[in-house]
Design a protein that fits this description.
Layout (H helix, E strand, L loop, with lengths): L2 E4 L1 H15 L3 H6 L13 H4 L10 H12 L5 E4 L6
Antiparallel strand pairs: 1-2
Protein name: Monooxygenase
Organism: Mycobacterium pseudoshottsii
InterPro entries: FAD/NAD-bd_sf
Length: 85
Amino acid sequence: MSEVEASPEAEAAWVEAVVTRSAATAERAKTCTPGYYNREGKADAKTRQGSFFFGAPTEYADILETWRAKGDLEGLAIRGAQVPR
């Protein structure tokens, strides 16, 4: 295996998950002092796509556990090796 990368579809799905979860903080970001975390006062979906994962404390671990249990490396583009199916 020489290269492993998230597929464009998987990347888009993850960004959408982050944006959706961070929507609850959007109003607060608009009223905060302009700075790094709200793109100098531009608190919009583009700002939130680079946000933190605002899921429940164990939600991220659950997402990874479910993905690993499937065993098919869904969402990854792997080049330079055969992936067992």
